[in-house]
């Protein structure tokens, strides 16, 4: 059968189907039509009987009333009192000494007062954007009607129709979405602004808050960016060019689109002449000016105030997540944000991260090993320094120091095993089993075991088998609950013996681990880690205050000291010996996690070190682990070198300190006061020296006595022999 025959039969079948479909539809309509007519008559009777039209009208009016009340209270809730002050001031970050550390950049330029703004700018913006500006009370009925018509005809709110006051409200408080709700909010807020400020103040705020392309906000910075002069020195044509950009800053700015900018300038000049702000002669004269020849960029970015990018990013994150503030408000409303920042610590930490020699080499494909560090005050929980990642900074990019969730490896052992063991009565010199167990498969790093080992050595050497055995002896619940008490979030699946080795489903961050180890440095107290201590708005009102943070007593001072005595051994004789900072004594722990494709390759490396007045928590690893993205060394040799560089540069600024207890390796596992061990060591040394001196003197005395005895005996024999010879001589004569 050829194709034409197939096609003929398909058409024939389709025609038959269509005829049957039409016939069936006609029969169905004839059947249902009487029922529809009955339903229509019934609906009309019910509609009239129950006054449905009136009910719908009433519901509509109630809806309008409710919406109006909502918008009224919304407008009232916005503190327009602070609008002017917030536009004038930048958000400033202060350090722990209340000294200015930098500022946050945002939609804000250099604020200038009305008398520093050219009258040409004011006339141009009123002529083109809001001709009735000096007559209305914040909103324009015609503009609102135009927006409503646009909604009906196009299905969405079209641009235009907003007064300058409405645009100021939108820029300061609202999103840029073209919705009816936003438009309504805009109107009510504009009314409130008009009640508080006069027209000149509103116009000044608007011109200081408008965007002019190329990252420039406000007419002062725009004047500098495009013409190299202040806002009060602009010519008529230059002012018309700047105001022309308001319609589309990226389309009409003269640096990127000179031809568009010229055409838009000429349009603004024509409108100014039409409204009587300038004469026709002025219009013609300015249109003849070569705009390209006037361009001169003398603007310098204010972004240099964003001095410590990782730390400032984390400050914004904390204010948004913990206090419910918006990023836009933080960047633009002139807050004063007080923090725990130590600028000396931060500079030193950033210098370490700027030096690639402190880190392992990049992978073959160029992927950079990532890293993050936190320096925290254990007495307050305040984060004093923070670096969230290596490489070029991207505003509020992923921060490994605060947002990361990775398994902490063996750094969790003091939290999940050894602290609860000390609470249960174990001591640093308690003997633990160092052998494989049937209930959980594990091995020590080097694959060997000793059968038995004292606890302080198991801690310092980061042995896995004793940790698993001890958690089994204590019970999973004790270890699991204790980790949560230290502030480390766990999943239900983490309640297994791998908890002893840091195998967590979700993991933790360097900041959380630093706060947890703060308990060992500060008598068992854990503070919630934080950067922000206080936030003050542009009027001076305190809106958030965390200057007196609360703590949880998770372990006793005695247990904290016992733990510290063992953790000192990590740096003196254990896995962090290579990472020990020269000239400083620190306690802490290392940790590694294996990749899921090769047990000999490392996914994460951790090291946490502390003194009584600072905790430094550092992580190293690839952002995405793969067969070509992994670490191969030990924590002491790789992340340990990062930590060592940090500690050696930061600790000189940390002040004098001394631990309360001595290294358990020095005392054989006994918990002894540090000064007592030093004194006893000195006394023992002096005593030994005296004993050695006495022994030397005794031996010398014994040697001298022996010498004289032998000399005397020799002299006697010599005398005897002499007498004998003398007698023989006399007999011979």
Provide a concise account of the structure shown.
With 733 residues, the chain is an alpha+beta fold. It has helices at residues 3-49, 52-77, 83-88, 119-129, 141-154, 164-173, 180-196, 199-209, 219-227, 236-244, 249-252, 258-274, 280-287, 291-294, 309-323, 327-332, 343-354, 413-423, 455-460, 464-474, 476-485, 510-521, 557-572, 639-650, 664-667, 674-732; strands spanning 92-94, 100-103, 336-339, 370-376, 383-387, 431-434, 451-454, 525-527, 532-536, 542-545, 551-553, 587-594, 602-611, 614-621.
Descriptive report:
The protein is an alpha+beta fold and 733 residues long. The protein is 50% helix and 10% strand. The chain is built from 26 helices and 14 strands. It has helices spanning 3-49, 52-77, 83-88, 119-129, 141-154, 164-173, 180-196, 199-209, 219-227, 236-244, 249-252, 258-274, 280-287, 291-294, 309-323, 327-332, 343-354, 413-423, 455-460, 464-474, 476-485, 510-521, 557-572, 639-650, 664-667, 674-732, and strands at residues 92-94, 100-103, 336-339, 370-376, 383-387, 431-434, 451-454, 525-527, 532-536, 542-545, 551-553, 587-594, 602-611, 614-621. The strands form 4 sheets. Strands 2-1-3-9-10 form a 5-stranded mixed sheet, covered by helices on one side. Strand 13 (602-611) and strand 14 (614-621) form a beta hairpin. The protein is extended, with a radius of gyration of 41 Å. The chain starts with a helix and ends with a helix. Residues 154-159, 176-180, 679-715 and 728-733 have low confidence and may be disordered.
């Amino acid at each position: 059968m050829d194709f034409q025959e197939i096609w003929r039969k398909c058409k024939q079948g389709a025609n038959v189907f269509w005829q049957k479909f039409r016939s069936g539809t006609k029969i169905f309509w004839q059947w249902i039509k009487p029922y529809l007519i009955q339903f229509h008559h019934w609906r009309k009777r019910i509609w009239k009987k129950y006054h449905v039209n009136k009910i719908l009208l009433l519901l509509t009016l109630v809806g309008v009333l409710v919406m109006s009340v909502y918008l009224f209270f919304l407008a009232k809730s916005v503190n327009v009192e602070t609008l002017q002050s917030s536009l004038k001031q930048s958000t400033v970050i202060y350090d722990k000494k209340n000294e200015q550390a930098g500022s946050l950049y945002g939609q804000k330029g250099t604020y200038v007062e009305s008398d520093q703004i050219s009258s040409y700018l004011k006339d141009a913006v009123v002529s083109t954007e809001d001709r009735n500006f000096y007559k209305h009370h914040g909103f324009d009925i015609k503009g609102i009607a135009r927006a409503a018509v646009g909604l009906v005809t196009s299905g969405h709110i079209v641009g235009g129709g907003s007064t300058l006051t409405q645009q100021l409200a939108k820029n300061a408080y609202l999103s840029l979405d073209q919705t009816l709700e936003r438009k309504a909010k805009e109107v009510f807020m504009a009314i409130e602004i008009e009640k508080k400020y006069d027209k000149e103040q509103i116009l000044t705020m608007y011109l200081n808050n408008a965007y002019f392309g190329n990252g420039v906000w406000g007419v002062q910075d725009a004047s500098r960016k495009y013409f190299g002069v202040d806002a009060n020195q602009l010519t008529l044509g230059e002012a018309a060019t700047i105001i022309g950009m308001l319609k589309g800053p990226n389309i009409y700015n003269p640096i990127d689109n000179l031809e568009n900018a010229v055409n838009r300038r000429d349009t603004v000049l024509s409108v100014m002449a039409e409204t009587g702000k300038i004469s026709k002669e002025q219009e013609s004269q300015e249109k003849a000016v070569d705009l390209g020849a006037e361009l001169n960029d003398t603007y310098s970015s204010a972004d240099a105030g964003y001095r410590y990018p990782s730390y400032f990013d984390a400050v914004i994150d904390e204010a948004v997540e913990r206090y419910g503030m918006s990023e836009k408000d933080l960047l633009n409303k002139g807050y004063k944000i007080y923090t725990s920042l130590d600028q000396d610590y931060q500079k030193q930490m950033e210098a370490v991260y700027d030096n690639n020699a402190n880190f392992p080499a990049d992978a073959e494909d160029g992927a950079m090993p990532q890293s993050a560090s936190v320096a925290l005050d254990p007495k307050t929980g305040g984060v004093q320094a923070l670096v969230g990642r290596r490489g070029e900074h991207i505003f509020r990019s992923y921060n490994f120091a605060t947002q990361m969730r990775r398994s902490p490896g063996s750094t969790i052992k003091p939290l999940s095993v050894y602290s609860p063991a000390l609470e249960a009565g174990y001591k640093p010199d308690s003997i633990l089993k160092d052998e494989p167990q049937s209930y959980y498969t594990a091995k020590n790093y080097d694959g060997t075991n000793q059968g038995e080992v004292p606890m302080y050595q198991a801690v310092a050497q980061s042995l896995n088998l004793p940790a698993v055995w001890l958690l089994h002896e204590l019970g999973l619940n004790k270890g699991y609950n204790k980790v949560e008490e230290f502030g480390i979030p766990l999943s239900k699946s983490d309640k297994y013996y791998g908890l002893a080795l840091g195998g967590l489903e979700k993991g933790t961050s360097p900041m959380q681990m630093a706060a947890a180890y703060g308990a060992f440095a500060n008598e068992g107290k854990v503070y919630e880690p934080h950067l922000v201590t206080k936030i003050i708005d542009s009027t001076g009102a305190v809106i958030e205050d965390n200057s007196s943070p609360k703590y949880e007593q998770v372990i006793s001072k005695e247990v904290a000291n016992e733990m510290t005595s063992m953790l000192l051994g990590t740096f003196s004789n254990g896995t962090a010996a290579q990472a020990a900072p020269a000239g400083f004594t620190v306690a802490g722990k290392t940790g590694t996690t294996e990749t899921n494709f090769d047990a000999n390759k490392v996914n994460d490396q951790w090291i946490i070190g502390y003194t009584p007045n600072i905790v430094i928590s550092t992580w190293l690893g690839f952002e995405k682990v793969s067969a070509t993205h992994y670490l191969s060394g030990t924590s002491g040799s790789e992340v340990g070198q990062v930590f060592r560089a940090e500690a050696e540069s930061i600790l000189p600024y940390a002040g004098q300190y001394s631990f309360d207890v001595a290294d358990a390796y020095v005392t054989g596992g006994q918990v002894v006061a540090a000064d007592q061990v030093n004194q006893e060591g000195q006394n023992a040394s002096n005593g030994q020296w005296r004993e050695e001196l006495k022994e030397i003197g005794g031996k010398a005395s014994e040697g001298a006595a022996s010498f004289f005895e032998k000399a005397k005996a020799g002299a006697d024999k010599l005398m005897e022999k002499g007498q004998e010879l003398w007698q023989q001589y006399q007999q011979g004569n």
